[in-house]
Amino acid sequence: MIALAAGLALPFLMQDPFWVAKQYANWWTSLCIDDRTQWPFETCYRDLWLLLRFYHWPVNYHGYVVIQLLIAAVAAAVCWASRWWAARPRVEVLNTAFGLAVCWMTVCGPSTEGGGYVLVAPTLAWAFLESWRLRSPLWVRGLLLASTVAFTVGVLACLVPRSSEWMAYGPHPLGGLFLLLAIGGESIHRIVAPATKIAAPARTIGYAIGGMYGSSPYKPRAQARGFDKTPRLRSGLVGRKAARR
Fold this sequence. Notes:
By secondary structure, the chain is mainly alpha-helical. It contains twelve helices and no strands.
């Protein structure tokens, strides 16, 4: 919030304040006039609102905004409860927060297009592989499998003629919704049943980069930085004396 406020205030320091205020007013007017909520299914945004419209759910746009805020609030509550109530490891909470954040930004984002779902690719790939490796509950693996199938259909639909008609069925938001339910549901399951060992939802990109260089969040900081305190025999006279002892 501080960074957002600073970004909005910075133009007033760089240009004429009256001109900047007029630009903000014009931007707000254009935002209010440009209503894209009722665009045709072939060209509209690929978000949860597309699914609600296409499958005739009795929810108007104001109700959809409430759903967006509720999902965001639940995601924040899950992250808070994972850390401070269930006392889950810090890395696990970061993984959960990352997965829920990218799912919300795509499924419930304000202007999500099909290409934007590349954000969930690292989360889905790792969550899918880890769920089968650690034998997560069947419903978690089922949701992740359904998410993978939906995204695969979305990619294959781009290879056929009149692909926009196939996109109207919402394979991208369906895949993102399945992934959101899998990560959120598994996180809630860990909170209410902390003794049950199940897979973490996904590794963050930082974890993957750290693994490339031989460091892991699960290692102690001293070892991750290269300071291994394990005693070793040194060469020379000191090493021979230590060996005799």
